[in-house]
Structure formats: structure tokens, C-alpha cells
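Hi everyone,

Forwarding the result from last night's run.
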Amino acid sequence: MTRENEIRVKQLLARDARVQALFESLRKEADEVLSQSPVKHRLIGPRLLDQSRRCLSRVYLLATVYRLSGERRYADRAIKEMLTAAGFPDWNPSHFLDTAEMTHALAIGYDWLYDVLDSQQRQTIRQAIVEKGLREGEKVYRKGTWWTKTPWNWNQVCNGGMTLGALAVADEEPELAQYIVAQAIRSVPIAMANYAPDGAWAEGPGYWSYATHYTVYMLAGLQSALGTDFGLSDLPGFDKAGHFRIHVVGPSGLAFNFADGSARVGSAAPMFWLATRFGKPLYAWHEREVIKGRTPLHLWWYNDQSADINQESVAKWFRGADIVTLWSDWTDQAVFVGFKGGDNAVNHSHLELGTFVLDAQGLRWVLDLGPDDYNLPGYFGNQRWTYYRLGTQGQNTLLLNGQNQNPRAEAPVIAFWNGSNGSHAVVDLSAAYSDDAQPGTGPSSRVLRGIAVFGRDAVLLQDEITGHRGKELQWQIHTEAKVRLRSNTATLTQGNRQITAEILSPPDLTFETQSANPPPPQRQNEGVTKLVIRTKLPDQPFRLAVVFWCNPTAKRAPVSLRPLQEWEGQVTPRK
């Protein structure tokens, strides 16, 4: 928030009704905060994080409304929040995300409200940033603690929070600030490398949001304070990050929420920043018109550029993460499939290779259950794969002999096609069901899964299994629809809308339902039905084909089944 940008936003407020409505919604939210108690030093499990984030969101909100209205009560309430946090005994450096986000909160308040802080308030807040934030970060950098080297979201969040804190006090603590910023600039490319080559984030869209927010906070802070981001925004794939966001948010408004992520789509003001930085108006259009984000940074980074979504390909293979999204068209009534290959060993991953979600008629029909409670015993340790939502039993994929997929397995995309008559992809799941966990284990033991979208009418899910004779196969999906079974068909109903699943091959198999509720204290999946097909695998190669008829008014054209090795678009998997 520079002086120049403050002038720009005030000019927008004077003439743009949408910006005015955004500001008024923020003012209303700020009015509610005025009477609320400030943050408390209270841990949930090992984390202070909910309090750090509460402080951060309140400081952004109150400082924004003050800067644009001039009403001192908003600044005073933000200062109260910061002084309360400054008085905490610590910002929980043992879980450094908490420290990074609290440092971020006080850095923004110290900078944006500097002109209304008295000398004692400035000293108190500055001292807290330095002692509870930056000095703790300095210890981490000097020790080379793990998050400085990780390629995942902790890297961007911690480096981003430390950078903003350092920039806020750089004139008063130049030596410390220089050290912190230099270390962060060296560290963050390790994580940003994961955006290459096409902007995807293998931890899932939820952690794409977290990582990308903090990457942009850091880059925007460097640019506004120092006039350069030291070339970080030019790293390969980062300019394409917005495409991943656009493609994984289905027409239902829900994300393809693989890994530890919710299907609920939060807003992402960095889409405005990315649109401006890289000349990508589609990013701004999507955030403004589809997501309708309404946060303070949506004001400061507001971008009113228009774009034509129909110029974007409806099918996308994100090669860096081996994630595929298939849309029939770019409308809210489109058929949408999110389909997962990739790597079970990625941070926050579930054992879910081959899983998928399905949208049609504006609704989510096949859903991903998302994460469980992070405070469950061993959630990130040796009990992780015992939990229903994380193990293979809780995914929309294949279960062999009731066992989890191999936690080290990779599943490369081996075919991808986007044509005038539909789109499809094939993933090699062989390593997921093999002890050696290497993709492409050969014809003696192979598991392939293909998904094809035929406009708004149908989705074909085809599995081919070789070399697992005698094992119990369970095909499974999770749905919030009401399910009615009849032989080899299942009718799924939500309100007045229906789709039908039909077993094409072998035609003598039938559907059944199972409970999707694990034992407490795991999260219960109320209203969710698990639709399954069970069979014992024969000696010969086995094919299981299910078609989802997504348009109840369309004539059902025959679906031709061809071996997955003959599907168009065969590719050589990445190394």
C-alpha cells in the first residue's frame, strides 16, 4: 500500500460502483470487529496459528478502512490488536508458521499506521517485530532449520512473513533486516521451483492458495519497498500459477480438493497482482467475476481488466504435478472432472492416486472428502495412513485387498487428449499397487485408469488391471447424492437433478453401497454414501468400465470401449 496506490484506490472509490460496494462491505466487517475482544495467547494443539491469522486479518481490515475513510476509530482498534499481540510472551516459534504470520500482521500495521502511532506504540510494536519475530527467524536461518530448505508451503509462508517484518523495520534495524531479506531471497526459490513448468501446486489447491498468497506478499513487499523482487517473479512457471487456480475450481464452485484441502474455495487477491504483473487479464476476470473476492487486498490490487474465458483450453494437463482437469465447456452447467496422478510422497498428500471428482448440472456428484483434524494423534506421523480420509479407503480410486496404496508411489499421466469430440487422460497406477513403488512396472503387473469426457452427456471411467489375479478389487466413489440401485446401474439424485452410473464392462457386475463413516474421533461424513463395485480379479487381464450419464434429457449414444493403450495422445511420462 504505497501513497500512489492509495491515491489510485481513492479515485476508483469515487467513480467505480463495484469498488464502492467492496469498500462498504469491508467497512461493515470492520464495524463488527470494533466491539470484539482482541487476540489471545491460546494454543490449539501445538499451534497459535488461528490467533496469528485473526490478528493479521483484523490489521489488514482495520488499517485499510482507516486509510480510505480517515476515521481514527479503525486505526485505534488495529493498534489495540497489535499491542495485545506485542505483549504475548512469544509468538510460538516452535511452530514457525505462527511466528511468521504474526510478524506479517504487525509489520503491515506498523507500516500502514505509522503516522498515527505515538512514539511509545512504535517502540513497543517495533521491538515485538524484532525480538519475537526477526530474532527467532535469524536463529532458524543460522541453524539451517528444515523449512529454509523445504520445497513446500512452509518455505514461502515463513520467508514471506520474515521478509515483511524485516522491510518494516529496515531503517531502524538495517543489519538484521539485510540478513533476513538476503536469507529469504536465497531460500524461497527452492519452493517456487514447484510452480514449474505450468503453475500447478502438488500440495493441492488449498495449499496453492496459502503458498501463492505468501509468495506474492513477499514479492509485492520487496517491489514496493526496494523497487525490485530480485528476479524472483521471473522464476519458471510462476507466471502461469493463475491457470491452475482457474482450472481446478469446478462449475459447482467447488475445488478439486486433493491432498489436505477443503473443497470450499476461498478468495485469492494475488490473482489480481499476478494479472497485473504478468499481463494476464484472465486471472483478474476469474477472481472478480467468478470468485468475487472481497478482502482488503482486493481493493489495493484491484484490477478491472476483462477477458474471454472461451479462449482458454477446456482440458489441461499440469505436467509438473500430473494433475488433469477436463471441462466440457466454460459454463456453470459444464461437465467437469478433476483427475489425479502425481506422487503419494508429496507433502500433505493422501494415498489417492487415480482419484477424481465430477461436476455436472452445476453440482458436485463425486466428491473428495478432504482432510481430517490436524490434531489427531500421528496425523503427520506414523498414524497418518490409518485415518479414513487420508488412506486409500477414503478415496475415489481402486482398493486392492483392502490395502492402502504404496506411500512412495508415483502415477504418471501416459495419455492426454483434447479434441473436438471430447477430452481424456490415462494414468499409470501400477506403482501404487506394487511393493517397489516404481511407475511402469511392466505388463506382468499393471494398473491403468482412463477418464474421458464426452461433452455434457457422459463421462467414461475405465480401469485395466493385469497381474493381480485372485485379489479383491473394490471400485469406489463418494457422493452426497441419494443413491438408488438397480442391477448394474445407480441413479444419483440431488434435489430435482439426476445422473446415472452404469457398469458397461463386465455387464454382470452390480453396484452396492457402504458406510463412509469411520470410527470417532475421526470426522464423520454425514450425508455421504460410498458407492462400490466388488469383484475378485481373474487370471486374465481385467477391464472395468463405468459410464456416468450426466444429461438425463440427452439420447444415450453407444460408448465404444477401446484398450487404454489405444487412446489418443499417448505420451512419454516425465522423468
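The chain is about 35% helix and 20% strand.

Cheers,
N.
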